[in-house]
Amino acid sequence: MQIFLFLLPQLVLFLSVMLVFGIDLMGSKEKKWLPYLALTGAVISLGISIYLYGWMDFEEGTVLGGMIAIDSFSIFFQIFASLVAVFITLLSMAYMKVKSPYQGEFYSFILLASFAISLLALSSDLVMIFIAFELLSISSYILTGFFRHDPKSSEAGIKYFLYGSLASAMMLYGMSLLYGATASTNLVEIARGLVGIDPSLNWVVYPAIVLMLVGFGFKTATAPFHQWSPDAYEGAPTPVTAFLAVGSIGAGFAILIRVMITALPEFQMNWAALITGLSIISMSLGNLVAISQKNIKRMLAYSGIAHAGYILIGLVSWESGVLGTVFDGLSGILVYLLVYLAANLGAFAVVTAIEHKTGSNQIEDYAGLIKRSPLLAGTMAVFLLSLIGIPGTGGFIGKLLVFGSALRAEYYFLALVAIINSVVAGFYYLNVIRYMFFQPLDEPTGEEIQVPGSISIVVVLACVFTLLMGILAQPFIHFVQTSLKLVLS
Amino acid sequence: MNFPVLSAITFVPLLISLIVLIIPKSKENLIRWSATILSLIPLALALYVYYVVQADPGTMQFREEYSWIPALDVYYRMGVDGLSAVMLVLTALLSTLCLYYSIYTVKDRVKEYYFLFLLLQVGMTGVFVSLDFVFFYVFWEIGLVPMYLLIGVWGGKRRIYASIKFFLYTLTGSMAMLLAIIAVYLNTGTFDILKAAAAQPFANNLTYAAVAFWAFFIAFAIKVPIFPFHTWLPDAHTEAPTTGSVILAGVLLKLGAYGLIRIVLPMFPEQFAYYSYEVPIIPILAVISIVYGALVCMAQWDLKRLIAYSSVSHMGYVTLGVSAAAASLHAPGADPISAIIALNGASLQLFTHGIITGGLFFLVGMIYDRAHTRQIKDFGGLGVKMPYYYGIMMVTGFASLGLPGLAGFWSELFVFRGTFAVIPTFAMIGIFGLVFTAAYILWKIIQHVFLGEFDQEKWDAATHNAKITDLATFEKVTMWPLVILMVLVGLYPSLITRLLNAVSTVLLNNF
């Protein structure tokens, strides 16, 4: 019974996938209400997962033969996955109606991918992780290449697929090595097996860590495994880009955290060193390349790579037993993820609204946006300021926590690189604000932009979230800290 | 519980900005007047705070403390002593004057302008009243965004370059400060500015103390600005709209100096003294700012740029005074009275420079609105045509060069009187700044702009036949409060110094 209740949000999501897909197959008539059906499924799933978080006491542990972890971390990501499903569906409604006749397929894949996110976050066994990982990846490939008549979209899909399958293969190889060293695929069992492991086996574990990091690095778009992201972001339908930038990356960090902290605490010295390197490369490369981007989706892709670098700082500076104290790294990661996701979702919602109306994603076409749509320009400014980390927005709280955890763990160099990068990042975010507010309109095309209702809901909610997390951060940090009771061995 | 006066001063402008946001765009006059009249509330409250604080200016009063983010140990802490009370009055006064002046001068995007300006006031006021590092930092940064937009939207020709330069410079400093704040927290276990100072962070680790000291120092030095971090200032000042320059010079620069006095000096006295006396980097930079700034002024032909550089020079006095106060800790035989005098001079300079240079920027704006040029060479003989303007410019200019009887005199006198007793070499070099200041004000401004024969043809050619009119009523109303203050503080400096002296004494006695 407990298992059933716990997995109810997933079951609802999966049921909605089947319903949307099945109903779409029946009869040839176009069914305009399918998106609403998908939305209803996502909302129900969200409601149940919030209920589970607030009102249910689960016995923590693993179920289904150790495949699934029941803990508050899982519920946190169940809520996250349902939120992603709700928002991406809302974002797609007006946009996809014009762009594609294949409504049923699109929404069922969005729901399926969200289902995969929550499944990935709560798996506690390498086999389950791989299955969920692949489910998420394959749905993402299809969604990215959804406009098959648009060469950019197809190219993005193929590129994403090729990189992804290579990364999956390497990750699987790493997992098999880990199995070889510990004779188990269960994360908790692996952790136990690694305690006091025969030193001669270290050279099985090291490559295993490296190879698995390739897979996770791919999913979280961390440099140097990021090459797919700018092209995929640019070519994919914009709501799908938002999904990749928010949902997919969130899932990647969820599983990265769980594997590293549950299965590999014994080797923290080793993976922390590797991740420090990844973090530095990601921050520096992402920010520097983002400066020269002309397309806003590409710019946000590179900025996402940079933010992945900031988030990794929190993981590097994780120490066991400091949870709940000021500046512990893990709360830093999750808070940063929350604020980054809210700001990024909002930014992509604005991009969707503008592309929907003008068909352009060039930053220079944002000139004079303040006159054409004060709502979009104003909220976009809030999102960008949050990504810079200006106080009053959530981004500041995220940066404060992550930098604080770096200093606390005495990673001074990492903190220094991070602040230098924050200033560099200020430059290209401000560039967009500059276009929106300072550049006059030179063409008569500058009529007002009408924002579809469903998109403006997303924009306004994301903006409210971003500001709330900056001004009243306490409930969010508390929420994160209670969600961090991982299943530790 | 008492009425939270400081929260009211800080957040009433936010409330007004929201009111402005609600009023429909087309009702521009309603927006202008309601914002201006309502901004008298924080001004009245600031005067009330000044009145109450002066009874016992050495202690923190009007304390407010609530838990804000318990998970991060961040509190909502506010309090004022004599120094912050003076700065509060300055901020509220200049903001109200700017809002009033804008009624007649800002025609474009009125609603957004007033909204951003009031937001800026929230940020500035907050810095002067907050006693918690994170809280302080929040306000410090919040002011940045509206100022960036004010320069970028309502500024001059090179506004985009200037605004982004301003933003990135300040952001660099703030980021360094953020790390330093976190480091201080990890060392002392509190974000409380007063408690952290009392705990003397990193007292046992000189390397870390020096790093944290420089992180704070650079963050504030960029804002002051101290040479070589000053290059954003001439651009930002020149391109900003008139009121933007007034606020930049009048208040924003003061934030940096205030940080030096309120945070760096009490928290890192040893480091401050070391880098002021044994390795005198700070007084050297201060003296360079003073002399170099004044020399650059002599070479400027753009009136606004000239006054911008004069700020670099004048803020150098502040740095010099603070570093002399710090150096007294290590200088053998330095008497504590001189240190206190130097610090008094530095903090008085914050106030006097605020009203004087604020006034000068208003005056430049007024002539620019008429002539649409700021080139000094285009003017000449304006004294005949605009006698009222000439009169007010003379008072303000003389106050700026430190004529006895006007406000600027006292702050400079105190700074040099204090500095001579502690680090005489630097005082001697710095005194040249005074000479150059007198030179550029008399020669560049008074002589070139106002004296001589008025040449109608040259004026017409330079300004495309602009009409010359003397000051309008609203311009007189804007300038009079500042002029009165210049004279009042000039004749009776104790009005302000009484408050500052108590703060300086407490600060330096705690060493």
Give your account of this protein's structure.
- The complex is a heterodimer of chains A (489) and B (511).
- The radius of gyration of chain A is 21 Å and the shape is globular.
- Chain A has a two-stranded antiparallel sheet.
- The mean pLDDT of chain A is 87.
- Chain A is an all-alpha fold and 489 residues long.
- In chain A, 75% of the residues lie in helices and 1% in strands.
- Chain B has 511 residues and is mostly helical.
- Chain B has a domain at 275-511.
- Chain B has 23 helices and two strands.
- Chain B has helices at residues 5-22, 28-38, 40-53, 82-105, 110-129, 133-142, 144-154, 159-188, 193-199, 206-223, 232-239, 242-267, 269-278, 281-299, 303-327, 336-371, 382-385, 387-401, 407-422, 424-450, 456-463, 473-491, 494-509; strands spanning 61-69, 74-80.
- Chain B has a two-stranded antiparallel ribbon.
- In chain B, helix 11 (232-239) runs antiparallel to helix 12 (242-267), helix 12 runs antiparallel to helix 16 (336-371) and helix 16 (336-371) runs antiparallel to helix 19.
- The longest helix of chain B is centred in the last third of the chain and has 36 residues, at 336-371.
- Chain B starts with a helix and ends with a helix.
- The model of chain B has no long low-confidence stretch (mean pLDDT 88).
- Chain A binds chain B through residues 326-327, 331, 370, 385, 388, 390-392, 396-397, 399-401, 403-404, 407-408, 415-416, 419-420, 422-423, 426-427, 430-431, 434, 437-438, 473-474, 477-478, 481, and chain B through 68-73, 112, 134, 137-139, 141-142, 144-145, 148-149, 152-153, 159-160, 163-164, 167-168, 171-172, 175-176, 178-179, 182-183, 185-186.
